[in-house]
Each structure stands twice: as structure tokens, then as C-alpha cells.
């Protein structure tokens, strides 16, 4: 199977060198029916409407529940989170989240549900840094021009992406237009280093909890069709479900049908 492999050999590729076809994604199409993703879409400038990421995630079965510019009232937020598999927060240039919303996000994360924290170049990481400080004693900073396509890091290269379940099926990945670098601390490790050698995407995978931190949210709406953005986003959502913690296989027929995929996923994660 291909879980965790960045190069899929012997298959047709698109103009960016990535294997064509959704079958090379980490998750099968429709594989996450019944799972929802809550998105706090706090920055909506520059025609950033989240339409293309939503369409990609829906193909995998995810329901996307999106709140623009501000979070819902606290009680509603908690109620929606209680039914969600993961939370994505796309930061803006000023703090929007209240301390009570941050506390609810902390509880959600501590329960083992995945979170994806997105920021971008200074100053577009205000709430990202509020959450990073709370959860990881970390931060993102800087205003770096990227706008390049990355390949897998090799031979000591300081730029490129590393083999991980989230980078499954990628030969090339667009880094985003503008980028903030992420301070690696308290269990955060890099999975994507930008063309200037800074960490642009980090992950956390400890104590049954998972998170992704990204300093390049322009990847979600600029040059979407360039070099792997759709596959990367779908892989990220699949990984953040934290399948082996929150799902039990009870149907022997279904297990037999999907045994190879599940076995490879779990062995790669462990």
C-alpha cells in the first residue's frame, strides 16, 4: 500500500509530477462519511472563500461546518465541537477568539480530537499564536516570500517535505505565496520546510493527540491546482481523524475488505 509513501512509481502523473487519481490519497473517496470538520475561517480577504478545500474534503466524505470571521457563541461552539472529528482555525491579523473559546479548543484537543491551526505572514497569525502559546508554548513569525514548489527533502536539504502520512502520494507540493516560520517546541516537529529553509508546517503526535500547524494559509486559495494542495489537505484531514483511537472495527466482513489499508495506516502511525 501507499500510506506514507511520497513517490508512487509506475503510474501516470500530472503536470506537477504527482500521481494522478484520488486512489493515491491517504484516504479513499467517501471513506469518512459521518465525520465533520469545524472550520473557524477568521480571515476571508482576497476572495478566500474555502470553496475548493471544501469540495476536496467532501469527496472524502467529510462534512464541513464553517464559521466566517468570528466563532459562534460559546455554547453553540461547544455543541458543534461535540459532534466534530476535528477543528481547523484559520487565523487573521487580530485576536478574535475569547479566552473561553480558547479553553474549549484546549479541551477538544486534550480529548484526542485533531486540530489544524493555520496562519500566514505577519500579522496574519494573531489567533494562531494565541493557540500555539496555549497548547505548545510556541509561535509563528515572519514575512517570507515563498511561491515555489517543493520536492521531498533529501541528502540533508533544508527545504522540502518529509515522509509522513500527510505527505502520502506527493512528489511536489506548493509551499504557499507568503509564509511564517514556526517555532518548534514541546513535541512539534517539521513535516514541510519552505524554500528558504524554515518550518512552514509542523505536526504534533503524542499522548493520543494530533495537531498540524501551518504558516502558509495562502496554499488554501492561491494556485490551488498547483502541486498537490488538494491531496495534502485531504491527507491532513484523514490523519487528524485519529482513526485508531476513535474507531473500532466490529464488522469482520468490512475488516476483511479494508484490512490492508487499515494495517498499513496503523503500522505507519506506530
Overview of the structural elements:
This protein has 270 residues and is α/β, with parallel strands linked by helices. The protein has a single domain (22-269), classed as Class I glutamine amidotransferase (GATase) domain (Rossmann fold, 3-Layer(aba) Sandwich), CATH 3.40.50. The protein has helices at residues 51-59, 74-82, 99-110, 126-136, 229-240, 243-246, 252-269, and strands at residues 36-41, 63-68, 86-90, 114-118, 140-145, 149-151, 160-161, 172-174, 178-182, 189-193, 199-206, 209-214. Helix 3 (99-110) links the parallel strand 3 (86-90) and strand 4 (114-118). 44% of the residues are buried.
Keywords:
270 residues, alpha/beta, Rossmann fold, eight-stranded mixed sheet, two-stranded antiparallel sheet, 7 helices, 12 strands, 22% strand, globular
Radius of gyration: 17 Å
Domains (count):
1
Strand order of the largest sheet: 2-1-3-4-12-11-10-7
CATH classification class: Alpha Beta
Straight-line distance between termini: 16 Å
CATH architecture: 3-Layer(aba) Sandwich
**Percent range of helical residues:** 25-40%
Task: Give the DSSP E fraction (strand runs of 2 or more residues).
Answer: 15-25%
User: Which residues form runs of ≥5 with pLDDT under 50?
Assistant: 248-259
Number of helices: 7
Q: Which H/E pattern describes the elements?
A: EHEHEHEHEEEEEEEEHHH
Average predicted confidence as pLDDT: 88
Q: CATH superfamily, called what?
A: Class I glutamine amidotransferase (GATase) domain
Amino acid at each position: 500500500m501507499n500510506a506514507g509513501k511520497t513517490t508512487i512509481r509506475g503510474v501516470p502523473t500530472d503536470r506537477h509530477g504527482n500521481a494522478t487519481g484520488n486512489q493515491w490519497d491517504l484516504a479513499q473517496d467517501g471513506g469518512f462519511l459521518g465525520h465533520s470538520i469545524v472550520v473557524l475561517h477568521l480571515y476571508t480577504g482576497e476572495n478566500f472563500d474555502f470553496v475548493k478545500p471544501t469540495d476536496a474534503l467532501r469527496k472524502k466524505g467529510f462534512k464541513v461546518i464553517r464559521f466566517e470571521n468570528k466563532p459562534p457563541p460559546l455554547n453553540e461552539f461547544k455543541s458543534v465541537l461535540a459532534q466534530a472529528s476535528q477543528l481547523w482555525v484559520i487565523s487573521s491579523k487580530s485576536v478574535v477568539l475569547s479566552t473561553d473559546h480558547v479553553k474549549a479548543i484546549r479541551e477538544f484537543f486534550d480529548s484526542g480530537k485533531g486540530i489544524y491551526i493555520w496562519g500566514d505572514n505577519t500579522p496574519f497569525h494573531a489567533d494562531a499564536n494565541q493557540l500555539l502559546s496555549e497548547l505548545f508554548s510556541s509561535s509563528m513569525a515572519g514575512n517570507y516570500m515563498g511561491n515555489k514548489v517543493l520536492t521531498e527533502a533529501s541528502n540533508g536539504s533544508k527545504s522540502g517535505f518529509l515522509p509522513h502520512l500527510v505527505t502520502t502520494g506527493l512528489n511536489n507540493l506548493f509551499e504557499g505565496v507568503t509564509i511564517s516560520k514556526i517555532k518548534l517546541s514541546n513535541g512539534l516537529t517539521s513535516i514541510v520546510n519552505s524554500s528558504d529553509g524554515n518550518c512552514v508546517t509542523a505536526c504534533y503526535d503524542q499522548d493520543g493527540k494530533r495537531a498540524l500547524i501551518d504558516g502558509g494559509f495562502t496554499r488554501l486559495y492561491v494556485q490551488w491546482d498547483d502541486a498537490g494542495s488538494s491531496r495534502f489537505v485531504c491527507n491532513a484531514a484523514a490523519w487528524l481523524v485519529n482513526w485508531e483511537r476513535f474507531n473500532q472495527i466490529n464488522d469482520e466482513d468490512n475488516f476483511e475488505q479494508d484490512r490492508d489499508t487499515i494495517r498499513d495506516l496503523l503500522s505507519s502511525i506506530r
